[in-house]
């Protein structure tokens, strides 16, 4: 691969020309290490576990607080429902249901367009379809429709 081959020594072993020199400070650091790789790995794992468990405890406390806040709101609703259930009879419920139906019908009637508004809507739509490139030509129809809808 290189330009020159490795040289064979007198006893037949190969001698590689680049010699690796290890710095003295690096070798002393290796000698000063008292813990093995396994011990260091176990220590790091335990530190990581401790950090994760602390974060999990913080998250758990946050979630518990949020649940407590949510449950504080729920009892008020439950109390109202229970009091309504105790106080109302079937006849009262039928009356309330009839009142709600009447209110719903009145809202439906108020939201339905009158005949004039319906005609104005149709005129506006046809004008806009005719003037697709120039919708400002339909200002009059738009103003009429807006006026009729505002009255509703």
UniProtKB/TrEMBL annotation:
<protein>
    <submittedName>
        <fullName>Uncharacterized protein</fullName>
    </submittedName>
</protein>
<feature type="coiled-coil region">
    <location>
        <begin position="53"/>
        <end position="117"/>
    </location>
</feature>
<keyword id="KW-0175">Coiled coil</keyword>
<dbReference type="Pfam" id="PF07956">
    <property type="entry name" value="DUF1690"/>
</dbReference>
<dbReference type="InterPro" id="IPR012471">
    <property type="entry name" value="DUF1690"/>
</dbReference>
